[in-house]
Hints:
The protein is an alpha/beta fold. It has 17 helices and 19 strands. The chain has helices at 20-40, 56-64, 69-86, 100-116, 169-178, 186-198, 229-234, 236-239, 267-280, 312-319, 321-331, 342-372, 386-407, 411-432, 434-439, 443-464, 469-478, and strands at residues 5-8, 12-13, 45-52, 93-96, 119-129, 134-136, 154-163, 183-184, 204-205, 207-209, 218-219, 222-227, 242-244, 250-252, 259-263, 289-292, 295-297, 300-301, 338-339. Strands 1, 2, 3, 4, 8, 15 and 16 form a seven-stranded parallel beta sheet that branches. The protein has a four-stranded antiparallel beta sheet with strand order 6-5-7-9. Strands 10-12-11 form a three-stranded antiparallel beta sheet. The two termini are 50 Å apart. 5'-O-[(L-methionyl)-sulphamoyl]adenosine is lined by residues 10-13, 21-22, 24-25, 52, 233-234, 236, 262-263, 265-266, 294-295, 301-303.
Amino acid sequence: MADKFYITTPLYYVNASPHIGHSYTCIAADTLARHMRHVIGEKNVWFLTGTDEHGQKIQKAADAQGLSPLVFADNTVGQFKKLWEVLNISYNDFIRTTEDRHKRVVARVLDILYKKGDIYQDTYQGWYCTPCETFWIESQLSEGKCPDCKRPVEKISETNYFFKLSKYQDWLVEHIKNNPDFIKPASRYEEVSRFLELNKLSDLCISRPRERLGWGIPLPFSPEHVTYVWFDALINYISAVGDFNDEGKYISRWWPADIQLMGKDILRQHAVYWPIMLRALDIAPPKLIFAHGWWMMGESKMSKSLGNVVSPIEMAHKYGTDPYRYFLLRDVPFGLDGNFSEESIIKRYNSDLANDLGNLVFRTLTMIEKYFSGNVPVMQDQHLSAQGKLIKEKLLNIEQMVISSLNVCGFSQALEEVWSLINMANKYVEDTKPWNLAKENKTEELKTFIALLAKVIRQVGKTSACFMPKTAEAIFGQIGEATINKSGPLFPRIDTK
Length: 497
Ligand code: MSP
């Protein structure tokens, strides 16, 4: 078992408000972080998230509002932090790429790589679209015009700095080959392997001339240039948790990351650029890169540019934080795309939460109140029915099953396991007909039957706590080891008529 666990989410761009896609990566990361805190202890887990604040996208969005990029970014950072509070995201650190601690490490990385000869200068020609303030290479033009706005472009020559990605391609291919668990799910591993097999990597342009983009980290060896935003942003994963010593060796309590989560759209940057950057710095690669799928609206990816985004705060307010978290992780296996709709949230809410879990808790509490004046009876194995024995067995195994599923980011699978226990317990109530046991004065059987249900519920609370932290608290608040404290149903049904 690992002795420490470092998990990261991508840094979200601050040019737009958070939507459901952004909340997905953080909810998944939060669930794993909570789970691992339970397994290896609070102080051994580090969960990092934050915001990506430099570059043209942000500069333009700030200009459009007549704000300085930093004031503009402060505003969106506030929205992200508010959202993470509402969604109960228990991050240990929130890094902003505009912070000094980050900028200092980026400058150090650039300096080390430049001195080592892995960053070099080159001048090349291309086409510039002045209204879009974008530089295009010949092959990107559309009929000789700007591919975005279709206006004429101007030929310019630019001097920039390049990072030698190509030098490390063979190393990366080898690393991926020797580490079949480096990229997950398997389909993404294949995708990256194939890409590296079919393409010779070009070196990466890691600078932008300051005259056309001012909003970035200056290159220490050429203050007339700022750092390309991806090169800057990826470094957050190490700048947040360590630093270089005088000899240029990186020292960190947390690195290498145990898992780096992201959406499949930014897999290339994480699975190709990032490990190579680390290799050039003589730093170990992350242990696992996991690319999840997209939340779609019909046929399209939910995204700000398509204008089809749904607000996660609104969903959490409408359906509750835990049902929202539950829905995202239960409805679609992690790694695949999912279709978002409020109807599917309501369906999951009413069937899994109100009917299955809520009902089990409510009916058990009602029986404890009715038959045993609110005291949880003690279980005696000799009074267990055959069905009861099966449930007890499942109860003993469930934690291990959830751990095994979460070890491979199988969120929906873990929840299916927990729900199969809930469903077994509900069926146990229907088959046993406890009112008959009471009528026939079979008190010992009734005690053991109810005691087992209480244990099931507490175990469900324990194993689902990382998914639905508030619900687990509510469960433990209502069913103690010895007494109960019954309140209203956990999940009142949503009326759809
Ligand atoms: N700033 C970069 C990441 C830099 S990491 C050093 C970025 N930011 S982003 O805000 O555009 O996206 C952040 C995350 O949200 C990515 O993991 C992305 O895949 C995820 N999502 C954005 N839209 C999404 C969906 N519609 N569905 C699921 N996740 C998607 O990229």
